[in-house]
Amino acid sequence: MKITPLVLSPLGSNCYVLQANENSSEAVIVDPGDTDVHALLSFVMRHNLNVREIWLTHGHFDHILGVDVVRQALEVPAYLHRADLPLWEQVQQSAQTWLGRQVNALQLPNGYWEDGATVSVGNCHFTVWHTPGHSPGSVCLVGEEAVFTGDTLFAGTIGRTDLPLSNPRAMRESLQRLLTLSDDLQIYPGHGPKSTVIEEKQGNPFFH
Question: pTM to 2 decimals?
Answer without folding.
Answer: 0.97
